[in-house]
Amino acid sequence: MHSGEQKPLIGFPSSKLKGNVVISGDKSISHRAVILGALSVGETKIKGLLESDDVIATLNAVKLLGSTVIRHSQGSYSIFGVGTGGFLEPDNFIDCGNSGTAVRLLIGVVSTNPITTSFTGDSSLRSRPMNRIIKPLSKFGTEFHGRNSNLLPMTVVGTDEPVPIVYKLPIPSAQVKSAVLLAGLNAPGKTTVIEEKATRDHTERMLKAFGAGVEIQKSEEGTAITVDGYAELNPLELEVPSDPSSAAFIISAGLTVEDSTLTVRNIGMNPTRTGLFKTFEEMGANLHYELIENSSGEPLAHIHVKSSDLKGVEVPTERAPSMIDEYPILAAVAAVSEGDTVMRGVKELRVKETDRISAMVQGLKSCGVDVTEYDDGFAVHGKGRGSVKGDTTVKTHFDHRIAMSFLCLGLTSNNPITVDDGSAINTSFPQFTDIMANIGARIEELES
Question: Same domain for 258 and 380?
Fold first, then answer.
């Protein structure tokens, strides 16, 4: 959560990154494991859970809703679920901190429970509009009372007589899809979401793993995902794969810092999440995948990385959903690649933790990089390794991905790059600076 105290960090030019890296659990899968564990009947055991601020917000939420949570050790938890429809009315606000995933998935779950629940978050989350989930969830019969109608704080009056719905996503969003599917668990009949473009499918995979009835049908108008209502979920023992969105920063450093060789282990290779790796390969990246056995229904691999001379590419717009969180780090890598890297069709980045398009464009310009901004994206005109001046302080707008992207760029620029606030990194990747230090990258706190 944002405490208000800024923590400036500096990325210094580095070389010869080496090591074997284990990254903490995937954020998307961690949220879903906690929520579905809380909705199952009995004890769900989770290993490798990401203990970031965002996921801790979800753990605290399911406790307020009546589940029992026991922490055994780092990343190892038992969750005693109350069954679908078993959540109790909380006696306090549910504070989701900085997490859009937590708030949207939890609102989905409670919307078809006959309870009244109030949600809030930090100043960034309170400025993010919730219309996208209010629209479909209202169709179940749920009422929403938000500030300015669609902002947090928001009170959700769950319906005791939900009706199943069929909802076509107007824009691709795994969070909206998941909110509707989770709401459908406690409605009668079958609830269906239709998506034109594939988005992350962690919710569908995990619903199946917990024993829910899930049917997926592809047709000309897209993919229809149907969940059976009044589901009884069975508790699971599961291990959360390592987060590909966090791995992206380590892999990017390995590709761009000279004379580096790294292995990043147990990375979730879900095809709805690996657009960045595909893009890196098109840029000429030396990446090698060693596939390993599945856990929790997700494909996994160790990724071997060697520093590479990269060239600019145009990213196909249809790839955006599979790498929507990775555009900031791609932009940093593009700055030290040869030629133009064009990223369009990503207007959604303007309503993330901050306006990520504007934040990246301004930050890159202050580092001496040539950038063109568009309404729906931007182009980075890279001039290869050694071309980025650095010697600047970049505003992160309390956005963890902006902070980590510019620290990575600092490792390969001519002069250090400072980010005005690195405290947001704890929302998704608390181990970031420790891992970087272990592989030989120099990132330090600014001495005040």
Answer: yes
Residue 169, token pair as written in the block = 């996503």
Q: Which of 54, 201, 325, 399 is catalytic?
A: 325
Q: How far apart are CA 5 and CA 421, in angstroms?
A: 9
115-159: pLDDT as tens digits: 999 999 999 999 999 999 999 999 999 999 999 999 999 999 999
Output Rg (C-alpha) for the chain, integer angstroms: 21
Q: Which residues of 364-403 are buried (b: 16+ CB within 10 A; e: fewer)?
A: bebbbbebeeeeebbbbbbbebebbebebbbbbbbbbbbb
| Cβ pair 429, 24 in contact under 8 A | yes
User: If we measure between CA atoms, which residue out of 271, 376, 284 comes closest to residue 334?
Assistant: 284
CA distances from 99 to 53, 175, 210, 353 (A): 8, 11, 24, 9
CA–CA separation, 95 vs 122, rounded Å? 8
Chain centroid, CA 185 distance in Å: 23
SS3 150: coil
Q: Give me the half-sphere count of Cα atoms (radius 13 Å) on the Cβ side of residue 86.
A: 21
Q: Any idea of the CA torsion for 321, 35, 139, 194, to the nearest 10 degrees?
A: 30
Query: Do 255 and 183 have their domain in common?
Result: no
Sign of dihedral through CA atoms 150, 373, 251, 283? Answer: positive
Instruction: Mark whether 325 is an active-site residue.
Output: yes
Beta bridge partners of 190: 228
pTM of the model: 0.84
What's the structural domain count of the chain?
A: 2
CA angle 69, 70, 75 (to 5 degrees): 105
Cβ proximity of 417 and 366 under 8 Å: no
Residue 259, domain member (yes or no): yes
Give dist(CA 185, CA 233) in Å, integer: 9
The model's pLDDT over 418-427, given as tens digits with 9 standing for 90+, comes to 999 999 999 8
Domain encompassing residue 414:
9-25+241-445
